[in-house]
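Model it.
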Amino acid sequence: MERDMNVSSTSSVVHWLASLTLTLLGSVHPMPVTIDPVCTADTTAKYSLTFTGMWSQTSFPKQYPIYRPPAQWSPLIGVTHSSDYHIWQRNEFASNGVREFSEKGEAWTLMKEVEAAGERIQSVYGLFSAPALVGGTGQMTSEFEVFARHSFLSFIVRIVPSPDWFLGVDSFDLCEGDQWKESVTLELYPYDAGTDSGFTFSSPNFETIPQDKVTQITSSSPSHPANSFYYPRLKNLPPMGKVTLTKTKNNQIFSIPMEPTQFNQTGNEIGNEIEDSLINSTPLDCEVSAWSPWGLCKGKCGDSGVRHRTRYIHLQPANNGVVCPSLEEENKCIPDNCL
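Modeled.
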């Protein structure tokens, strides 16, 4: 499978979705549906969504993708729905649509699954998107609508490059009783779709057979030093992104720029200041190889000799991580072949 996803290759999908807010129920004949008793709001609500990428070389220094391709984000695919639907779910198997999206960034199968759920069981109200973000840090925006029977929000955005990793939200309820939440910010952490067993951002295709369930990636799981998110000194990973949901006043959706906003590596918007820093500094310790075998013991006859062994650096330290130890060691010995 080709790992170097070109964001422009999804331009046809993004163009079709960029300003799209599908109301999937409009063309379906009414069916008896159990109304979620938790939400009793009598009006619809419209929200703006801002996704902020926080994937920087400072916050995630290990194997940070610099080129072919550099760190970036796929288009965001979002759904508004009822409580009985999930576009993806932790500790459950990913659908074929989620597999294709998380591995290759291809959204057509996923969108067909969403539309089918809306037509079949009327669980889905709207489908929307935000454009791809070329860079690990920056922002993309979109907008959507919810109402009492479909007050839940879910979305997914692929980590590029990666085997099958993504950020997302599953079934976040925007309603509290008879009121809509005004503003919410959620921190986002990486998930593994369970369909590819690659350990690093740029791993070649390695299909997981049998398929695993969707799991959250942490600083210690998968517990393997080769994993791109393996930071044994950290109790928790820093957030890789965040999403801010803001209810628009008087239910009027204002004009939102559809082009993503780029940020430099310090976390500042280019040409403007942002309110808070995007950067969490993650220490990366030096990693070295095992020692080589001892070399020959060299020395004069009747005197003690000296032998050497060496090791080399696997990973340079960063962000005040533990510095590299000595790479050469010597030891006294009795000469094998004295001169």
